[in-house]
Amino acid sequence: MADLDGWIWMDGELVPWRDAQVHVLTHTLHYGMGVFEGIRAYNTDRGPAIFRLPEHVRRLFDSAKILGMSLPWSQDEVIEACRAAVRENGLESGYIRPMAFYGAESMGLRADNLQTHLIVAAWSWGSYMGEENMERGIRVRTSSFTRHHVNIAMCRAKANGQYINSMMALQEAVACGYDEALLLDPEGFVAEGSGENFFLIRDGVIHTPELHSALAGVTRDAIMTLAREAGYEVRERRITRDEVYVCDEAFFTGTAAEVTPIRELDGRVIGEGRRGPITTDIQSRFFALVEGRADAHHEWLTPVA
Ligand code: PMP
Q1: Does domain 133-290 have CATH number 3.20.10.10?
Q2: Among residues 17, 75, 288, 300, which is most buried (max CB within 10 A)?
Q3: Which of 52, 199, 219 to mutate to test the pocket of ligand 1 (most atoms within 8 A of CB)?
Q4: pLDDT of 226 over the 90 cut
Q5: 7-123: what CATH class?
């Protein structure tokens, strides 16, 4: 990843990709206190457009506030940095990664005399779970790792250190031959995937866990809106693991995962064992929207040019 042509926006300037370096004593590298975003740009008829950019930037600022990090930029400046990162790298579509972190100005947990730095990188990135899995669906395993308790990690923050838990869960699932992990909250209810929100469908009704241990996904919000506009009933509530075993359909949502069907949990086949009809409908509505082919929600697409 480091050895690429292109530009990275770093503290207000576009620097050559290979020169976007930090010192080994970078504070966030040691303690994990940083915040980041994952955003996608899609190729539309009107050129590359970024999906729900202001909402992602707002979440970045919310995450920083939760962690007590001050960001010396405005949300508008970060929005412009994201647009520049896509434009200057000549991308038609791709993934955008803003990250705010503490520098190498000092060490120690007091975090005295530290500066907050911000980078925005953007690169070309296809389907996170593989193109064929967008239709076939993925195999998921309930994780032995519990998702964060709300007073241990601040779950509204998309913070770097939280992803230790995500990575351990995903690595365990992959080592056991599965594609993704389903994490339960400290009380045993379904929380989310390692980097995705979770939905299930039973008797035509769409259900998703409340936001306690799960991240407030921007895609989750878009899917709930689209589903309700399409006439589906959507309920946010506590969901148990065995409800997932007996649901008709299930899927994950996220910037990287988009809308990924789930065909199996813990060796139990979900529904017909492939992408179900409601998942197919929701997925196609989602792609029509992000690719600028839908008549609604043009406000969710920010052109890059
Ligand atoms: N949960 C976690 C833990 C995530 O990392 C992500 C990806 N940001 C999501 C859910 C989905 O959020 P979004 O739709 O905003 O990408």
Answers
A1: yes
A2: 300
A3: 219
A4: yes
A5: alpha beta
